[in-house]
Amino acid sequence: MAEAFGQAARALTGAVTDSLIETRLTVDVQCEAPDLELLFVEWLDAIIYEMAVHGE
After folding, report:
1. Residue 49: phi, psi to the nearest 5?
2. Domain boundary assignment for the chain
3. Residue pLDDT, tens place only, 19-33
């Protein structure tokens, strides 16, 4: 599951930027949800938030 969520984060980043995707910053993200589908949505929301905050 961790690998799938990581790949989803990379895919999301690729979808919203024209830049080459590379790891430049590591951020700890904690999400909670009652089921896996909602956890996935929370995860993607957290990635979008971190991108906005860090200017990526």
Report:
1. -60, -50
2. 1-10+26-56
3. 777 777 788 888 999
The string of DSSP codes covering 7-49 is HHHHHHHHHH-SSPP------------SSHHHHHHHHHHHHHH
Question: How many CB atoms sit inside 10 A of residue 22's CB?
Answer: 6
On whether the CB atoms of residues 9 and 47 are closer than 8 A, the answer is yes
- What letter would DSSP give residue 56? -
Question: What residue type is assigned to position 8 of the chain?
Answer: A
pLDDT band per the 50, 70, 90 thresholds, residue 56: low
